[in-house]
Each structure stands twice: as structure tokens, then as C-alpha cells.
């Protein structure tokens, strides 16, 4: 339960830090069903999961999220029971999981709680750019390279994957 609370804290901290605004496909001049590759969006779902990617809210009941990433929290054991070790947060690219999903997803628009456009200068967008330059990782979580660390956890409400 504690891990979920910490994960929720991280997600809300990121949402507050990026404080983007929602974009509308009608003002972007997009080809049908093609999200812009240079616009990163945080998508918060009703089940508490949060994904980052290129979002397109085209016609129909489903939104399209391409080049998908999410945060993965790992709780490490502390040597001192009086001082628990802080969880490790890493950025994971969708597709490396054991079941082998593609790196894009269709999301029911009814399951989207809200979404925010990420600023190009956000720490998360910088971490994504670094991961995209790195060679593909195996089915394990990928720690962002030095200098692109994800901000530490703080109070928030949405647990993620």
C-alpha cells in the first residue's frame, strides 16, 4: 500500500511540474490518426495508471497514444529497519514487457481522466529523449541516464504501473 502512495505522489508531482495545457487536434493540422511526434502528453487514466506519449484524440471512441512510456517504481530493501530505503523510480518504454506489447496503444476515451501536454524543457521529456537515443533495452526497466533523473516522490493521488 505504501508503494502505491509513493507512486501516486510521483505522478502528481510530475503533473504539477509540467503544468502543460491540453491541445486540440483540430488546431494542430494533423493527418487523420497521426499524433505529432514532437508533442509529449501525460495521459491519466481512471484506473490510476499514467502513460506518456504522442496523443491523438481523433474521431471515434478511442484515443491513440504512440511511442508510449511509463514510470516504474521499485522498492529496495533497506539495511536499517528504522530507515526504509526510498523507492527507485525508472522510466520504462512500453514494449519491453514479457508479453511483448507494441509501443503504441489505443485507449478508450471514457477511461481518460485527464491529459496534459508536457513542456519541451521538462525533465521527463529530456529523459525520454535520452532513452530514445540509447540502444533498445531488454524486458527490464531502464534507468534514465545521469542528468535526466525523474524528480523524487512527493504527495500525489494517482498510482501508476
What does this molecule look like?
The protein is of the alpha+beta class and 161 residues long. The chain has one domain (2-133): SH3 type barrels (Roll), CATH 2.30.30. A hairpin with a 4-residue loop joins strand 1 and strand 2 (50-56). It contains three helices and six strands.
* CATH architecture designation: Roll
* Biggest beta sheet attributes: 6 strands, antiparallel
Q: What is the total number of structural domains? A: 1
Query: What fold name stands as the CATH topology?
Result: SH3 type barrels
Characteristic terms for this protein:
SH3 type barrels; alpha+beta; 161 residues
Brief digest:
The protein contains three helices and six strands, in the order H-H-E-E-E-E-E-E-H. The protein has 161 residues and is α+β, with helices and mostly antiparallel strands. The two termini are 13 Å apart.
Amino acid at each position: 500500500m505504501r508503494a502505491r502512495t509513493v507512486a501516486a505522489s510521483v505522478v502528481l508531482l510530475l503533473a504539477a511540474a509540467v503544468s502543460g495545457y491540453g491541445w486540440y487536434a483540430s488546431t494542430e493540422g494533423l493527418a487523420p490518426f497521426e499524433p505529432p511526434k514532437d508533442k509529449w502528453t501525460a495521459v491519466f487514466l481512471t484506473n490510476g495508471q499514467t502513460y506518456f506519449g504522442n496523443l491523438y484524440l481523433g474521431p471515434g471512441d478511442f484515443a491513440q497514444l504512440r511511442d508510449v512510456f511509463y514510470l516504474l517504481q521499485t522498492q529496495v530493501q533497506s539495511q536499517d529497519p528504522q530507515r526504509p530505503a526510498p523507492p527507485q523510480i525508472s522510466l520504462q518504454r512500453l514494449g519491453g514487457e514479457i508479453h511483448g506489447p507494441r509501443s503504441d496503444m489505443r485507449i478508450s476515451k471514457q477511461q481518460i481522466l485527464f491529459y496534459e501536454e508536457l513542456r519541451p524543457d521538462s525533465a521527463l521529456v529530456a529523459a525520454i529523449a535520452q532513452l530514445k537515443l540509447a540502444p533498445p533495452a531488454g524486458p527490464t526497466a531502464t534507468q534514465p541516464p545521469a542528468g535526466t533523473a525523474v524528480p523524487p516522490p512527493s504527495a500525489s493521488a494517482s498510482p501508476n504501473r
